[in-house]
From TrEMBL:
GO terms for biological process: RNA 3'-end processing. Residues 138-195 form the PAP-associated domain. This is STPAP polymerase. PANTHER family: POLY A POLYMERASE CID PAP -RELATED (PTHR12271), SPECKLE TARGETED PIP5K1A-REGULATED POLY(A) POLYMERASE (PTHR12271:SF127). One of its GO terms (cellular component) is nuclear speck.
Length: 243
């Protein structure tokens, strides 16, 4: 099924035997570099991949996740993944380095500029400094919900390049001139700084995301999250991932 009106025109397909869905696009080098960046983050710390999968499953069960190419106002997996990476950048000490730091660590063979955007970062996770953060994946998951339960998404821009939430750019700022589309949830692409990867999300979905994070954070503080139920009820991650 062709989707010519998508930001990057794609042909969507579904493999009937497995049920796996995918997209085909042509000459999209930024997407290739974004994929390599996500792989680098996953290889940098063993907690990244399970935490990303946990948040994506939770969001799907809460009805928060979807595919914006289909026109829906939900978060896609890429946006959710970037939210997790940003959260890991902001831990103390950080689990992941900022994109600006990755650029400093890039060697000559790692330099890449696509469409005027600097996409330089190490291709090998061995070039990164190991994190001294010792928090467990379950602790990080609970802290993820706490970090975003009262986050003012509309008033700030989440920047993985800087590893912090930036104030909204004034009309004369370079970000505004580059065409960053602001909305109820502002999540800047790590490299293509004019791209808000959550631009499709409306105010209702952004508010629901905050409420769901508050509910999840409250549950993660309860005994049911930490201890097995003596009455045979769902507990721990199992209950968190229920619809």
């Amino acid at each position: 099924r062709a989707v010519p009106a998508a930001r990057r025109p794609v042909v969507k397909f579904c493999h009937k035997q497995s049920g796996l869905a995918g997209d085909i696009s042509v000459d999209n080098r930024l997407a290739l570099l974004n994929t390599r960046f996500l792989r680098l983050c996953a290889e940098a710390d063993e907690r990244v991949r399970p935490l990303v999968y946990a948040v994506r499953l939770w969001a799907k069960q809460q009805g928060l996740a979807g595919n914006p190419a289909g026109g829906g106002p939900l978060l896609n997996n890429y946006a959710l993944t970037l939210l997790v990476l940003f959260f890991l950048q902001t831990r103390s000490p950080p689990v992941l380095p900022t994109v600006a730091r990755l650029r400093d660590l890039a060697g000559d063979e790692d330099r890449a500029v696509v469409g005027g955007w600097d996409c330089s970062f190490p291709r090998d996770a061995a070039a990164l400094e190991p994190s001294t953060n010792a928090e467990s994946p379950c602790t990080l998951l609970a802290e993820f919900f706490r970090a975003f339960e009262d986050f003012d998404f509309a008033a700030r821009v989440i920047s993985l390049r800087e590893g912090r939430a930036l104030p909204l750019p004034p009309a004369a700022a370079p970000e505004a001139e580059e065409g960053l589309k602001l909305g109820p949830l502002n999540l800047q692409d790590p490299f293509e700084l004019s791209h808000n990867v959550a631009a499709n999300v409306n105010e209702k979905t952004a508010a629901r995301f905050g409420r769901c994070c508050r509910d999840a954070a409250k549950y993660c503080r309860s005994l049911q999250y930490r201890r097995k139920s003596s009455k045979g009820r769902a507990w721990g991650l199992t209950r968190l991932f229920q619809p």
